[in-house]
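Page 37, top half.
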Amino acid sequence: MPSTPAVPASDVDVAAPTAMGGAGGRIALRERGTSFAALVIPPLLVFLVVIGAWILVSQVILAESKRFLLPPPWAVVNVAFLDGHNRAELFTSLWLTTKAAMVGLFLSIVIGMGTAIAMSQAKWVERSLYPYAVVLQTIPVLALVPLVGFTLGYNFSSRVFVVVLIALFPVITNTLFGLLSVDQGHHDLFSLHKGGRITRLVKLQLPAAMPAIFTGLRIAAGASVIGAVVGDFFFQQGTPGIGTLMNTYASELESERLYAAVILSSSLGIAVFLAVTWLERRVVGRWHTATRGTR
């Protein structure tokens, strides 16, 4: 029988990957372009709809006598952001609120993760501490304001305490959930190799719990900004935070500056949330289904 001509190995090894690599590269570029458009265009459209609805309500629906309740976007920009004095006042107060939020978030992460790790290592610790974590979450902040003020003073420390009070519970619950959700087969493998408690925690539980931990951090990131603004409302001694300015602007019917303060507070919350999300991508990567762009 006539033999089939042999194809040189170099033709297969070089030509096939080149062709596949070119097509794969084009597909990757196309998917990257699609994902970029999918990330940018929908939020941009929603933003334009919100701005359009804002202008419609302000200029058409509201009567002239009530237009001060919802000034148009250009009035907010002109009064709050283009005026040098108002802009400096807003951003100085925003910086103070940012510091309180970041310090409180850092303390919440340290205390919350430490508490969750302790509870994951011993059932009696979980039974002892978890009910108080729930109680801490359910206490109204208003009820603690006099006690916090008398103890810590009506200043920066009190604002940080409010941030910790609000942001601590999500860190504890999500970290504990992740640490306790490790597959039993993995635990058996570590037991087979006589892995100690610390080795099991560092090399198994903490890496496996990272997606759940970062879920709690994202929630705590938004809560930290809310806690800092709430703290500004209640503890107003010293340099005013952005929440203090909101209270002042509302009492003086300075609607343009009030809306500017609200926009800056929301922008701070979005920035902190995106920073935690970026850190999650760097730490967790794309190996976990929660971080994949599957939708």
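Page 37, bottom half:
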Amino acid sequence: MPTLRTTSMGAALLAGVLFAAAAGAATLKIACSGIGQERQLCREAAEAWAARSGHGVEIVTPPNDASERLALYQQLLAAGSDRIDVLQVDVVWPGLLAAHLLDLKPYTRGAEAQHFAAFVANNTDRGRLVAMPWFANAGLLFYRQDLLRKYEQPVPTTWQALAVTARRVQDGERAAGNERMWGYVWQGRAYEGLSCNALEWVASHGGGAIVGADGRVGIRNPRAALALQTAAAWVGTISPTAVLNYAEEESRGVFQAGHAVFMRNWPYAWSLAQGEDSVIRGKVGVAMLPAGPAGSPAATLGGESLAVSRYSKHPAAAAELVLHMTSAAVQKDRALRGSFNPTLPALYHDPQVLQANPFMGELQDTFAGAVARPATVTGRRYNQVSHLFWNAAHDVLSGRAQADEALARLEATLRRLGRGGRWD
């Protein structure tokens, strides 16, 4: 009969398993995005927690499209489903989903105080902490350093300069044999990502907000119209017509294949561009997005948090998993390996993090001053507001409407929804 032999580590693991069994081990399902390296890093961190805790984990990959993912969550939560215990939620969703999310305060032991206060406030609904910050985001301009040097061009600081430089380099590279080269790629599909891009264009032109913090609607104005007209002029000239169906990964695919001079994307694209299999490794720079003629650079605030469904059968274990996934150790690992911006201020002074991601220090003002979408002021109707905004922008970009016409319709609809022009 074989005998059981254990090392000290084996004994510790065995003790953990026995303890978990005695306490009632659970298998938790966590939703992890499949964009870039997110799924892999999420899986590794969750499995590390499972090995330590004795619980099991299953990774659920929801749609990459943020709008489709939100619709799936809303469907499951409205049905009281326990199919997902831990949900990855966008920065604009806590208010929309709060009624279905567990209050994490009884489980955190004050850990939320280590995160950016604004992010914690964003995740707090009527005194309930419904999600823990996981990573921050802001729109950035990625550019080909080697090509700008080749054509002796500076990094553009205005949209006009970007268009001129993009066209110059694009035409030069095509003449040299790269017929697939484009000047600028971004996210133009009719989805939440376009709301982020279009908000950056409008804000950088001094065109105001979709709905202001005071609840006023004033999106129909000449500067906002100019912003959308400017972007529409890129389509088919410095941006492929297909950009109207690009999300994050489509635009990254073109840029990382060496077929674009500039790209607007989130920080996650940095580590992938620097990967060993990337043809543009060592050739990429990162800068603030350009400004319009009457504005200043603007980047949309993004980011993700982790929340626990109220319908989870294992709320305490799920909350423990969330605290592990949002801890300093996991956030540092994600910053080093995946260029995900931490939500813990202390990590922005970590030498290893800054060495791996120089832009995190150089562009700190971008993240600190990012433009928020009107999720707080519009509350549970934010998704409807964003849907209207991205459709208006897409109509202009695709040539189905003039900018002033589209913004006039948008403002009229928002005023009706907001009870005569104000939201409360």
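Margin note: DSSP finds 20 helices and eleven strands in the chain.
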